[in-house]
Fold this sequence. Notes:
A: Formate dehydrogenase/DMSO reductase fold; 67% helix; B: Alpha-Beta Plaits; 3-stranded mixed sheet; 11 strands; elongated
Amino acid sequence: MHPTPSIIIFTTLSGLGFGLLFWLGIGMPPVTGWEAFAYYFAAFALAAGGLVSSTFHLGRPERALKAFTQWSTSWLSREGICAVAALLVFGINAAGAVFWNVRVPVLGYIGSVLALGTVFATSMIYAQLNTVPLWKTHLTPVLFLLASIAGGALLGAHALISAMLLPVAALVQAIWWMRGDRIRNEMETTIETATGLGNAGKVRSFEPPHTGANYLLREFAFEVGRKNARRLRMIALTLAYTLPFFAIILAPDHWHVLAVPTAVVHLAGVAVARWLFFAEAVHVVGHYYGRR
Amino acid sequence: MTALPEKTGRKLGLAIDLDTCVGCHACVISCKGWNTENYGAPLSDQDPYGDASGTFLNRIHSYEVQPDFGSAQVVHFPKSCLHCEDAPCVTVCPTGASYKRIEDGIVLVNESDCIGCGLCAWACPYGARELDLAEGVMKKCTLCVDRIYNENLPEGDRVPACVRTCPAGARHFGDFADPESEVSKLSAERGGFDLMPEQGTKPVNKYLPPRQKDLLDEIDAIDVLAPLLEIKKSRNSGFIKWLDRALGKF
């Protein structure tokens, strides 16, 4: 799948933003006043910034509001509704905490559920697709949710919770990649099932329908070298999980100073992992072009 | 709404005969010709005299099939929207722009509601949907919905443009819900099959398999010419024989 920058930026930033909102909602830390302003500002900038970025890949962004109508069937619609609801609830929550030093725990809990719901809906947009076997697994929502709350814990300066969540998130990421490598060679869909000509013999693409590129090839036939993918996986794991983990373990006393730079390193690592999430994914339509 | 209808009254679709398709791409041209100036936004081209990329609703692949015994065979393979019963492209749509019609099962895009997010194209295993770069909306085969019910056209023209134009008669249009329809009978008789059945989309369009070709490998088929073509063993003598051996030594 083509790794569209706006979608990678969106899932990375808003994943972290909603992760931070999740912790703020359950009162960790129970901030008020200027401190609350700083936390909520960072969370809103990430979450809303990501959402705005996601509209850049739309062909007709001016009609984006119509995407709130099909919640009964579409995960993309559910994601939009959850995101806006979460931001509204946290907007009220933040105003109370910043201006009146008042925290309403119930509102916070509702917001936290909506924040997690948003990340879950985002992951289900990918995990629902039969056409991309690499994504079609229950591990995908687990991966997205863990990355989100681990990142949120880092940014929220919860040293202990981060130190526990980061290795778990790294482990799930590693398992997700191993599953991907395993299923790559045992795909149910092949050029034989795609053309239905498997009974007649071995099928090979003889000539594509067009001499130039087209939307399908640009969108679905992105290929990343296996060797590069391995290197990028190591980089992603190091930046997103290993470095932040050791920063917490080795410098617990300076943690409040290190929280933000560590979160930035983590964010860079998650962005690399998200790039791979798209770049390594293979869409079954490639079989029609003799690609897999 | 983007929920799929439980049942459609008719199941309009195509039976595509892989045995008779000659790969002339006439259906590609007539499809583009009709659909660029009728239903919905035109099908744009980008850099048509250069790298040439554009929106098409129907494309023809060609495949080589090598059986275990006998010669390889080329199969031309037209591919357009299969108007699936369980169309995954419809349910993922966040705006309700994509829908499947209850009365005849045709899958359409309401272009004034489409935001061009591309998720329906991701959900389609067949590559039947293409985002138009000029218009920013998703385009797909409409089964020429503006021809098949169009009473301003002569009756013979009330079929999809690809079907009307095919010089080989490789594309057949009809109602698959009616077991007595021509396409249903044709599909039953020739063993019409689904593309990617494992994807669970239940396509309405059926593909008719290519028939078995003659086997060239049977000795009798080439035996008439065989004596003339047989490469004779070297019967050289004298100087030529010596030269041949001398050259062979180098």
